[in-house]
Amino acid sequence: MIAYALRRLAQAIPTLFVVVTLSFFLIRLAPGGPFDLERPLPPAAMENLARLYGLDRPLVVQYGRYLAGLVRGDLGPSFSFRDLSVADLLARGLPVSMTLGALALALALPLGLALGTLAAFRRGRLPDRLVGLGASLGLAVPTFVVAPLLQIVFGLALAWLPVGGWEGGDPRHLVMPVVTLALPQVAAIARLTRAAMGEVLGQPYIRTLRAVGLPPWRVALHALRGALLPVIATLGPVAAALLTGSVVVETIFGLPGIGRTFVDGALNRDYTLVMGTVVLVAVLVVAFNLIADLAAAIVDPRLRLGA
Amino acid sequence: MAALATLVGMALACLVGPFLTGHEPERIYPDLVRVPPGAAAHPRPEAVRPAIERLAFRMRMTVSDIAVSADTVRLTLASPRTIDERALTYLPRSDLFGPPAIVERSGDGRRLVVEAPVRRLRVWLGTDALGRDLLTRCLVAGRVSLLIGLVAALVSLAVGVTYGAVSGMLGGAVDAVMMRVVDVLYALPFVFFVIVLLVFFRAGLWLVLVAVAAVEWLDMARLVRTQTLSLKSRDFVRAARSLGLPTPAILVAHIVPNTAAPIVVAATLLVPRVILLESFLSFLGLGVQEPATSWGVLIAEGSRAIESAPWMLAGPAAFLVATLVALNVLGDGLADALDPRS
């Protein structure tokens, strides 16, 4: 098990290296710079700024410096927020995004599993059809439609919840963003569970359990263990989707997470901030994939030997 | 079947519909800003009088005796000076009235009785914040969204199938390296990359297409590779090989056609993902740019106006959701129909 974990960890490092390299050169090749203002600065000032941030060096040297900084955990200074480093900005945004993502996952996973199991047990009947319909809708209705709808219904018409803002993580401000973020994942997990459960329920050991006279909910628990594997395997992508989905949710609800930080940084051509966010998100995505793989290996010993 | 019918209907509507709604997508009706949806024609009878008064003010004349009948309006214009009839072009220019006819003219030319037909404009889904017909705009936007969905899906299909089939067929070290590349790309936070691309290189329709296609071919490549691996050792492929067929010919003639079923399913499910991704980017203001429009652009406009004009969100969202649900249902249906186990 430990050997397997180490092997997966070793595979993750080249991935991250590719991410850093690709994004570094992609960003630097783009036209326009962080100090291009509507009223251009005098050339001498531009030169000074470039020298201050090391932008006058050859690109390869800059790349080497960036890598060296990265290894030490230094993401560099932010170009658009002069007094803050990228690490400061990300440290401010990350807890917001992580809270949202974790809560959304905590909501989506049990709900999706329960609905999928229900649909599989009542295949072809009303609950199955309802779950199927709901899942199709949940996957098709984009978050940027759900969010304004929630805002207008619960924020403005009923005035139960605040329309937006963070307010230090006040639970009332979290409800709508978390629900918005969780809905498509509930749909995806429910569909997956239904399909996986459908296969498991056809297996002989389930028939045996039923013949022995076990109540349906205990049969469901047994079957769930078998059906859990494909669900766990998608948790990595699901976590990634929650992170990227938060770009829209954070924009609509005005939350200061890393999604917002990233979009602002991109619009300001804040090289280091964009790089820092991409690297951070890549690290998180790789980490989630790794955790999901390890979880899958715990549930299914065959994977440990095979891969 | 219903899903397929919805899709065909949607595609036809988007292609032909804009010619049938009676409005140009770019046409701005300044007098019909944020009109709610409805089947009744505009201007409403009660809106004629204020509109005439507004126009008379612009013409610098006083208006009296406004008589609104079924589809004409008769009014008397008066001015301290002799009336220049060219001022009457204000009436047809306002979109609400047709070309006016002078019924009666007083001797000194300072009073004019004019009759003008009242236009009958129908905006089924209402108008947007600039006074453009929302139905026409939704349909025109649908062309862009569907086109992006289709083209990007086809591109990623072509790339994914080629990559997967070659990787699976060649096997060994080549396969390992090629799949390692896919694994690495898989872990990239692609949405962030696409955003970087679009922001830094100025978004355009084609760039959006390329960006979306670049993200979505990975699943296809994996799928095709697994299929190829299992087909490779089947008898008919071995037979083809022993007959001396070169590898590319085997790929084209035997492998790819036999992976068609799962590919068709995956491609059908890919189109809604692509449309959704495009809308997501357009929503952030990074995708399709004005004056071109897509459902994502319209939804973004709608969500900004949600308090004053909720129909601006509802209209395009309904089009988008209907299309996506239809595509998903179609994909699931195809998967069930083509699944050899069932």
What distinguishing features does this structure have?
heterodimer; A: 307 residues; B: 342 residues; four-stranded antiparallel β-sheet; 12 helices
Secondary structure layout plus pairing:
The complex is a heterodimer of chains A (about 300) and B (about 350).
Chain A: H1 2-29, H2 43-52, H3 59-71, H4 86-121, H5 126-140, H6 143-157, H7 171-201, H8 204-212, H9 216-253, H10 258-267, H11 271-299, H12 301-306
Chain B: H1 2-20, H2 45-58, E1 62-68, E2 72-78, H3 90-93, E3 101-105, E4 111-117, H4 134-170, H5 172-186, H6 190-200, H7 205-232, H8 235-242, H9 247-258, H10 260-283, H11 295-304, H12 311-338
Antiparallel strand pairs in B: 1-2, 2-4, 3-4
Helix pairs in contact in B: 1-4, 1-12, 4-5, 4-7, 4-9, 4-10, 4-11, 4-12, 6-7, 7-10, 8-9, 10-11, 10-12, 11-12
Short description:
The complex is a heterodimer of chains A (307) and B (342). In chain A, 78% of the residues lie in helices and 0% in strands. Chain A contains 12 helices and no strands.
- What Rg of chain B is obtained from the alpha carbons, in whole angstroms? 29 Å
The N- to C-terminal Cα distance of chain B equals: 19 Å
Mass-distribution shape of chain B: elongated
The count of strands of chain A amounts to: 0
Mean pLDDT of chain B: 77
Percent of residues of chain B in helical segments? 55-70%
- Radius of gyration of chain A in whole Å, from Cα? 24 Å
Q: Please indicate the percent range of residues of chain B in DSSP E strands (runs of 2 or more).
A: 5-15%
One letter per element, helices H and strands E, the order of chain A comes to HHHHHHHHHHHH
Note the total helix count of chain B: 12
Stretches with pLDDT under 50, minimum 5 residues of chain A: none
How would you describe this protein?
The complex is a heterodimer of chains A (307) and B (342). Chain A is 78% helix and 0% strand. Chain A is built from 12 helices and no strands. Chain A has helices at residues 2-29, 43-52, 59-71, 86-121, 126-140, 143-157, 171-201, 204-212, 216-253, 258-267, 271-299, 301-306. With 342 residues, chain B is an alpha+beta fold. Helices cover 61% and strands 8% of the residues of chain B. Chain B has helices spanning 2-20, 45-58, 90-93, 134-170, 172-186, 190-200, 205-232, 235-242, 247-258, 260-283, 295-304, 311-338, and strands at 62-68, 72-78, 101-105, 111-117. In chain B, β1 and β2 form a beta hairpin. Chain B is elongated, with a radius of gyration of 29 Å. Chain B starts with a helix and ends with a helix. The A-B interface holds A 11-12, 14-15, 18-19, 22-23, 26-27, 30-32, 136-137, 139-142, 144-145, 147-149, 151-152, 156, 240, 243-244, 247-248, 251-252, 262-263, 266-267, 269, 274, 277-278, 281-282, 285-286, 289 and B 183-184, 187-189, 191-193, 195-197, 199-201, 272, 276, 279-280, 283-284, 296, 299-300, 302-303, 306-307, 310, 313, 317, 320-321, 324-325, 328-329.
